[in-house]
Structure formats: C-alpha cells, structure tokens
C-alpha cells in the first residue's frame, strides 16, 4: 500500500497544475460565459414573455373592438329595421287613407246615382201617371162618344 501511495504522490503533484488550470477555466467560464449567457437568456425570456403578453393584450383589445363593432352593427341593423317598419307603417297608413277616401268617394257617387235614379223614377212615375190619366180620358171620350181611339187601327177601319 505504501507503494501505491508513493506512486500516487508524484501523480497528484503533477496533476495540481492541471487542477488549478481547470479551476481557473471553470471560474473564467462562470464569469466570462455563463453569467452573460444567463443574463442574455433571462433577457430573451423576458422579451419573449413580454411579447406574448403584448400579443395577448393585442388579442384582447382586438376582441373588445370586434365586440364593439358587432354591437354597433347590431344597433345599426336594429335602427334600419325600425326605420323600415316606420316606413311600412306610414305607407300602410297612406294606403288606408287613400282607400278610405276612394271608398267615401264611391259611396258619394253611389248615393248621388241612387238619388238621381230615384228622382228619374219619380219623374217617370209622374209622367206615366199623367200619360195614363190622359189615355184614360181619351179612352173614356172614345167610349162615351162612340168614336175611335187615336192610334187604334181596328176602330178606324170600322168607322170607314
């Protein structure tokens, strides 16, 4: 075992400069590469997370704008629908008014025509009654006098 220790001592002493160089390289790596690399990675992660957060914020803002536009669009459609309904109601009212006016004018013409017909019928009745009275008078004259009736061909032939 002594022999092993004797052989090991010069190896350990020969490896001391390598160990020191390794420690110096580890420390240099830690300060020169690892620290700045961690800083850059942390900064990159922060930027990435910030970009993701900004993207989420932009998406939320876009959704809010889209909902606002949809609400405005629904309001505009409702307003157009109300205006259309009001126009249709106004047109229907105008049509009903025109129909009522036309119906009233037709009733007035029918009543005027009825009145005119009744007046003509009354005039015709009176003329008929006068004509009938005159005819009756002529018939009575002819019968009582034994003469012929005017316009009666049979009586006119008998009298010749």
What is the secondary structure topology, with strand pairs?
Elements: H1 2-145, H2 153-159
InterPro entries: ATP_synth_b/b'su_bac/chlpt, ATP_synthase_B_chain
Main location: membrane
Transmembrane segments: 12-32
Describe it for me?
This protein has 2 helices and no strands. The chain has one domain. The chain is mostly helical and 160 residues long. InterPro entries: ATP_synth_b/b'su_bac/chlpt (IPR002146), ATP_synthase_B_chain (IPR050059). One of its GO terms (biological process) is proton motive force-driven ATP synthesis. Residues 52-86 form a coiled coil. It is a single-pass membrane protein.
Short description:
This is ATP synthase F0 sector subunit b. The chain is 94% helix and 0% strand.
Distance between the termini: 197 Å
Helix content: over 70%
Order of helices and strands: HH
**Could you give the count of β-strands?**
0
| Sheet having the most strands | none
Question: Which regions are unreliable across 5 or more consecutive residues at pLDDT < 50?
Answer: none
What fraction strand?
under 5%
Class from secondary-structure proportions: mainly alpha
Whole-number count of domains:
1
Which characteristics define this entry?
single chain; 160 residues; mainly alpha
